[in-house]
Amino acid sequence: MLNMLREHRHRKETAARLYDAVVAQARQPGFYRAFGVPDTMLGRYEMVCLHAFLVLKRLKGGGPQGRALAQTLHDLIFDDFDIALREAGLGDMGVGKRLKKLARNLHGRISAYERGLVEGEAAISEALRRNLYASAAPTDAQLAAMVTYLRDARRAVDALPVSGLFEAELAFPEPDEEAGAMRTGVGG
Length: 188
Description:
Shape: globular
Number of helices: 9
């Protein structure tokens, strides 16, 4: 019984550290300055979804322990969304409906991004336009920079041993803001 409690506590702590890494990466200024992601609540939500997709997918390939950690991370993400919605002023009645919609949105994005990465450049570009850039009009260069970043991030996360994720060792590539700025004609 004590081992189960310790394992559960360790899984929650690990999920919290992984979530912190996802949020920190999603907040990288380069995404908003050079890659054209809207710097809004919706844009930040979309960036969290994008990075959560990468981590959740990797964890689900890690056997029963990985799936358990993925579920704990998933639950933590939605606990945080719940808090954010309440802080934004939504009452108890509205929060539940919004959380269900956010959950459907996340699962839809996961499917679209998985399919897009498998089907190729046009499919992943369309998935990003429809989701990440739903409230923006990125240039072709910004979209290409995001596709490149997403492919690099997927390779980096997939290369991590699952045992490292169990210890919350997570490293995303840095968005290449200079290259993004040069490609988009910003700054120089």
